[in-house]
Amino acid sequence: VVERIRAKAHQNCKTVKVMTDPKSCLLLSVPEKKSAQAVDIIKPISSYIGENFSEHETEAQDDLETVQDLRTHVVSSPQGLENRRDYLIKYFRALCAMELRFPISKEKEHIHTISFAWYDAFKTGKKTSQHNIHFEKAAILFNLAAVQSQQGVAANRGDPDGLKAALKAFQEAAGSLELLRDVLGMKVGPGATTDISVECTNVLINVLLAQAQECVHEKCLAEDKNPAIVAKVGKQVSIFYENANANVQSSALTSYFDKAWQSHLSLKATHFKADAFYRSSLVSKAEEQIGPQIARLRQASALLSGAKRGARGSLNSPAVQAMNGLEGVVTAALTKATKDNEVVFMEL
Question: Dihedrals φ, ψ of 299, to 5°?
Answer without folding.
Answer: -65, -45
